[in-house]
Give the backbone structure.
Amino acid sequence: MEQLMRNFFLFLSKNRPLTKVAKKYGLRFGAARFVAGETVPLAVKTIKELNQKNLAVTLDYLGEFVDNEAEANEMADYSIKAIEAIGKDKLNAQLSLKMTSMGLDISEKVVMHNMRRILEAARKHNVFVTIDMEDYSRCQKTIDVFKELKKEFDNVGTVIQAYLYRTVADMEDLNSYKPNLRLVKGAYKESPEVAFPDKKDVDENFKKIIKMHLLNGNYTAIATHDDEMIEYTRQLVKEENISKDQFEFQMLYGIRPERQEQLAGEGYTMRVYVPFGNDWYGYFMRRLAERPANVAFVLKGIIKK
Ligand code: FDA
């Protein structure tokens, strides 16, 4: 049943007409629990609230199905506005973005042009940028773009998904770049030909890549709400004498906020991924796919109204 629901919401997340409708009508159905608002000032307000609680942030301007150059340029302009807002108020925040929003599916020229201007603005304002990882069909292209950019910019990192069979090989390949990587389990619906179908195997691979990246001496963001993975990391860094400066935990806005504060209180860098913008629908559906309790929360909200 859980798998069925997951597939259903992942299917819905790819629906273009619903994405368009959702954009028009603003944050609905409890999406505000996971999305900070639709504008830069609302996002800034949320960042300030989180910073006050000693939580760092990575801000993401939401955008799905970007398939023409003008839209990709607009997405990049908006991301630059977000960077400038972070810089102006000296907020404890980074930026996350998706390559498809910057023109990955349009052409290499468009995506590289947009990424270079974002990273230049980010460098000027001392902001680090993480390239999110999308579905398998974009994985190689995203890694290629990352490698190209890493030659020119220090302030860029990307994401590696534990559910892919190729992941360990990717990490070995990327190691010479000494990359700052966010490690995640993986959020998309992938075929068993490319990804572990069993959660147990994903968890095992997740632990493996956490260890690998930390022991290689690289900065590591462990992005998970799973206490087992958090505990694994805590034990590992203790045994291996790894400094708290070499890693951080990350969680999504609206998920386990008390746990986020608790970890920050224990002296760990805890970064919250804060999405904002009017294109919230696909992101929201992926969150519902992850956890039946999230669906129950949304249904309760609708019934209350
Ligand atoms: P999982 O969903 O397997 O949950 C394991 C356990 O965690 C649960 O059994 C429960 O104990 C606990 N838990 C989870 N949610 C909880 C809740 N709401 N309340 C209480 N307990 C809860 N994916 C991707 O493909 N590309 C990307 O770029 C990113 N980026 C990204 C950034 C950040 C900051 C995060 C946190 C996640 C991502 N992801 C991602 C998503 C990621 O791949 C994954 O889908 C989700 O994090 C869910 O997996 P978890 O590791 O949280 O554990």
User: Anything to note?
Assistant: DSSP finds twelve helices and eight strands in the chain.
